[in-house]
Amino acid sequence: xxxxxxxxxxxxxxxxxxxxxxxxxxxxxxxxxxxxxxxxxxxxxxxxxxxxxxxxxxxxxxxxxxxxxxxxxxxxxxxxxxxxxxxxxxxxxxxxxxxxxx
Length: 102
What we know:
Layout: H1 20-58, E1 62-66, E2 73-77, H2 96-101
């Protein structure tokens, strides 16, 4: 792929000078596209995380506690093969004391 790639379609972009307005419009369109993509991927990951934690909870392989500092509900897998932390992912507080009480 190099200089010889010309013609119609196929993702080949013909070089041209864009006006400031066209460049700005292109950037805004790209930002909007990226925001929609990020939203879709985030939603999929959130659903997947919820499903996995629900299955682990049903199998008694997850534990839950509430962070005393930020009051966020924390779920953590209770699997020997996965190293976990007692640091709250939301605020960074060491939640080991509150997880031992529950």
